[in-house]
Amino acid sequence: MPELPxxxxxxxxLSRLLPGKVVESVDFDWPKSxxxxxxxxxxxxxGAKVLDVRRRAKVLIIDLSSEYSLVxxxxxxxxxxxxxxxxxxxxxxxxASLIGNLPDKSTRVNIQFNDDSRLFFNDQRKFGWMRLIPxxxxxxxxxxxxxxxxxxxxxxxxxxxxxxxxxxxxxSVKAALLDQTVIAGVGNIYADESLWGAKIHPSRLVKxxxxxxxxxxxxxxxxxxxxxxxxxxxxxxxxxxxxxxKGSYMNFARVFRREGQQCPRCGTTxxxxxxxxxxxxxCPKCQPKPSV
Length: 292
Description:
N-terminal domain of MutM-like DNA repair proteins; alpha+beta; single chain; elongated; 5-stranded antiparallel sheet
């Protein structure tokens, strides 16, 4: 599953290419990937102009001049590829080649614009979807009503972060970070990286964290999310950046997938365990396991 930086990189790439494009036609081969009524597609998608591309948590939103939006969840293997006479951009699962022939067997949705450019939604495992929804109703979807605040929002402070974490006082701090109702977009990679940076063991209960530790965790989380966006995301098996190049964040990861290697801070061997149901990477010295 992509995390916030990977989806943000998709948004950045498409926001440079799609605004101003007018939808001419749309084809799809899998109804669950494009669960929209034909009448709505004809009335609100065909002939509509793209106004903006934005993101909420791990979801992409393409706003249209019809006052409808395409809400897109890439899930595990989704990829969006844009092609025109001069541009070939893609982001998502790299197995759908940017230089091969499209549509191919993984293409679920094919949107053609009136200048002959196209946007392909490819998804090998068919878990992703592209839904056409009135823009005014997006915030009323169950997912959006439940999801927590954006960690990179300008108005999201460490005190807000502390209040959100403290909603889960009796859970492990890693479980709280992964809970999308607490904070949006954080997954396994950036949870492990930020906890290592803050010298907090992932199994420590939220209620046992001091305000200073929470402040440090907030700083580290913001740091690793911004660094990953800068580096084009992780190469976590599935993702390439908006120009079809693999992200380089994993070259800078301090602990994630570094089990058996030396901690870059103290030299202790990094170990892998299981916390909150996920594979978890820690330094036993920098992040001592709580005794209780």
